[in-house]
From TrEMBL:
Family listed: Belongs to the FtsA/MreB family.
Family annotation (Pfam families): FtsA, SHS2_FTSA
Topology term for the membrane: Peripheral membrane protein
Classification via SUPFAM superfamilies: Actin-like ATPase domain
Location of the protein in the cell: Cell membrane
Quaternary structure (record): Self-interacts. Interacts with FtsZ.
Main localization (coarse): membrane
GO BP: any one term: FtsZ-dependent cytokinesis
Domain SHS2: 3-193
Keywords of the record: Cell cycle, Cell division, Cell membrane, Membrane
Annotated function: Cell division protein that is involved in the assembly of the Z ring. May serve as a membrane anchor for the Z ring.
Identification of the protein by name: Cell division protein FtsA
Recorded GO CC terms: cell division site; cytoplasmic side of plasma membrane
């Protein structure tokens, strides 16, 4: 059996293909990065263009096996994914007052009965904690004694149009995706980038993509906040294109080759001759000027994160900040994030030991922070299909515990 993880982003498509062994261990067979299309700020906005881009990416893995696209796990992002907190209550049904799975299911169903827009479809129920007769912080109440069971959950929903556009693009390109295989992007990233220790201590994971930036905050092993902002690394490129009076492609090249997140660390004497990059361009720009553009936009992103941390009263997180995504590869970003958020900051760390990896080249691909979401989708797929969870120690493969479709963060 194969699992294909699809991180469908605004700028790039990332694919990871794994074969599930008899022991449940995942053997990584292929990792693919291709240009995306038809996606804007995390949403499929042009089904035909997205399908065309996906078809090219799928062609790269089609030769592995005819069933390689039968189990596609994909992320969903964007402003039309909605998260609401909800509580459900159930009276314990047994005369012995022992809490059964039926009681748990009824409490969760009560939480899921939250009133939402009729065009929204639920994609996740994230159980945060159970409360038995007023005693909170319970992770698994099965078999406990009590008369009243409460559950606090976060319900993640997406607009029907968004889900339909996503599944149509995948299916037109030759893939097959079930609705339960669609995973909210920040949740997928947290599966991959955070350990239980991170979540217990308190941590914020920031995933800076091209079109969006997501954040998820955990403390005491509970999800305190999960957000997607419609701003990402592509906005930096757009700002640079305006500054340089150049094409997006040239601005991206300048950003990657000469960019830095902290302007004060760049010399005003270090100049970039624009004609060396594009003969059509004239003049020069200093590396400090480039850095000023980058720092301004990244500071805006970190300000959005900081405001959310203040709103949920989570400004003191011992495990600090974990960065991932393509935008997190910007030189100097760790120092800027530390300056703006006043927290310890680290790049997402990859531990590939639980996988069978074919080559050193494959290991290097998996260690790229741009593959964090795809990695989390693989682990989620393995969990759903009865495979092994990730280890609880350091590394990106934090354990995922899933009961039916009710996900514990």
């Amino acid at each position: 059996m194969f699992i294909t993880a699809l991180d469908l982003g605004t700028a790039e498509i990332k694919l990871l293909v794994a074969e599930v062994g008899k022991d449940g261990k995942l053997s990584i067979i292929e990792a693919v990065r291709m240009p995306s299309g038809g996606v804007n700020k995390g949403e499929v906005t042009d089904v035909d263009a997205a399908a065309a881009a996906l078809a090219i990416a799928f062609d790269e893995i089609a030769g592995i096996d005819k069933t390689v696209l039968d189990n596609v796990f994909v992320n969903i992002n964007g402003k039309r994914v909605v998260v609401n907190g909800s509580r459900g209550i159930a009276a314990v049904s047994r005369g012995t007052n022992e809490i059964s799975q039926e009681d748990i299911d009824r409490a969760i169903a009560g939480a899921e009965a939250i009133k939402t827009d009729k065009n929204l479809r639920k994609i996740h129920t994230l159980v945060q904690e159970y409360i038995v007769d007023g005693i909170d912080q319970i992770q698994n109440p099965l078999g406990m004694s009590g008369t009243r069971l409460e559950v606090y959950s976060m319900i993640v929903s997406a607009f029907t149009e968004v889900l339909n556009n996503l599944t149509q693009a995948i299916e037109r390109a030759g893939g097959r995706v079930e609705e339960e295989n669609i995973v909210f992007g920040p949740l997928a990233a947290s599966h991959a980038a955070l350990t239980k220790a991170h979540k217990d201590l308190g941590v914020v994971l920031i995933d800076i993509g091209a079109g969006t930036t997501s954040m998820s905050v955990f403390e005491e092993n509970k999800l305190a906040s999960i957000k997607v902002f419609p701003i990402g690394a592509a906005h930096i490129t757009n700002d640079l294109a305006v500054k340089l009076k150049s094409s997006i492609a040239i601005a991206e090249k300048v950003k990657i080759s000469f960019g830095h997140a902290l302007a004060k660390e760049m010399s005003t004497r270090d100049k970039i001759n624009l004609s060396d990059i594009d003969p059509k361009l004239k003049g020069a720009i200093t590396r400090r000027e480039v850095a000023e553009v980058i720092e301004s936009r990244l500071s805006e992103i970190f300000e959005l994160v900081w405001n959310e941390l203040k709103a949920v009263k989570k400004t003191h997180l011992p495990a600090g900040v974990i960065l991932c995504g393509g935008g997190a590869k910007t030189s100097g970003i760790v120092d800027l994030a530390r300056q703006e958020l006043n927290l310890p900051v680290h790049m997402a760390n990859c531990e590939v030991g639980i996988f069978d990896v074919a080559s050193q080249d494959m290991i290097e691909k998996l260690e790229d922070v741009q593959f964090i979401v795809a990695s989390g989708l693989l682990v989620e797929g393995s969990s759903q299909l009865g495979g092994q969870d990730g280890p609880k120690g350091p590394g990106i493969w934090g354990a995922i515990k899933k009961i039916v479709k009710h996900i514990k963060p």
